[in-house]
Specification:
287 residues, alpha/beta, binds zinc ion
């Protein structure tokens, strides 16, 4: 194993996902001299167009959006210090139920074996010590995130060299805090600065319904403190400012963002090192 650098590979669905859920670990491990490889599966063409235009709406030019998002992704990689960016280039499948799910070339309509074979080639080339992707529900049910999980787990059976494999997740305590901040910085047209919180002691009527995602805190196996890299993570997300869903996080500002998102959490789903759980480092047992 000494013939190559320790390597982290993150497999993500869209440009910007690398920043949201793994920007901290990518920046931290890059700073520690670990080689970092990002695999982004789709072109992000179903993302927001200028002015927030959605697919099918006027002003939504999928090719232009894909090009812009590739540039944003490259900027994010520079900020996070990612050594290698690999693009699988599948078509963005859009949200579950959208016509784009079944469009020719969409990631969702691609047989798992096809994507897995391509990813296995990358795993054989880079021989990652740690692989990170989403859980089986793609964290929140997005078809491209689910597909990223499927091709990753299938690729790992073909290129069975990786000692540690993780799925990204969020502890329920963090989701609760996230819900509070969503109400505070929500995008429902309310201007947080004008709201008198004291007038609304029971704001649950307008509470944002969070989907049943994440895990009870005690089921998180791995907590990685990347708060020292919160600024880089924020800046990486800022590089993806064309996407409306990121505006919410950016509105928090660096400090609040780092407070909420600075510690990244994972479930270890494969391990050959025997490292005790819970752990604080994806590379425990490997160095
Ligand atoms: Zn995504």
């Amino acid at each position: 194993m000494a013939d190559r650098p320790l390597t982290l590979m993150a497999v993500h669905a869209h440009p910007d996902d690398e920043a949201t859920s793994t920007g901290g670990v990518l920046a931290r491990y890059a700073a520690e001299g670990i080689r970092t490889v990002l695999v982004t599966c789709t072109d992000g063409a179903c993302g927001d167009g200028p002015g927030g235009a959605k697919p099918g709406e006027e002003g939504h030019d999928p090719a232009a959006i894909a090009e812009l998002r590739r540039q944003e992704l490259e900027a994010s990689c520079r900020i996070l210090g990612i050594d290698h960016l690999e693009l699988l280039g599948y078509g963005d499948s859009g949200m579950m139920g959208w016509p784009a799910n079944d469009a020719p070339g969409s990631f969702w309509s691609t047989p798992v074996a096809d994507g897995a074979a391509r990813l296995a080639d990358l795993m054989l080339r880079y021989r990652p010590d740690v692989v990170v992707t989403y859980d089986e529900n793609g964290f929140y049910g997005h078809p491209d995130h689910i597909q990223a999980n499927r091709i990753t787990m299938a690729a790992l059976t073909q290129a069975a060299l990786t000692p540690k494999v993780y799925w990204t997740t969020a502890p329920h305590s963090m989701m609760q805090r996230f819900g509070e901040l969503m109400r505070e910085f929500g995008t429902d047209g309310g201007d947080g600065a004008d709201r008198a919180d004291g007038d609304n002691p029971e704001p649950t009527g307008e509470a944002v319904e969070l989907p049943p995602i994440g895990l009870p805190d005690e089921e998180i196996t791995t907590w990685v403190d990347a708060t020292a890299f919160g600024g880089q993570k924020y800046d990486a997300l800022l590089a993806h400012a064309s996407q409306g869903e990121n505006i919410f996080f950016l509105k928090m500002g660096r400090e609040r963002f780092t407070e909420l998102m600075g510690v990244e959490t994972f479930v270890r789903v494969l391990d050959t090192t025997g490292a005790a759980l819970p752990e604080k480092d994806l590379f425990t047992g490997l160095r």
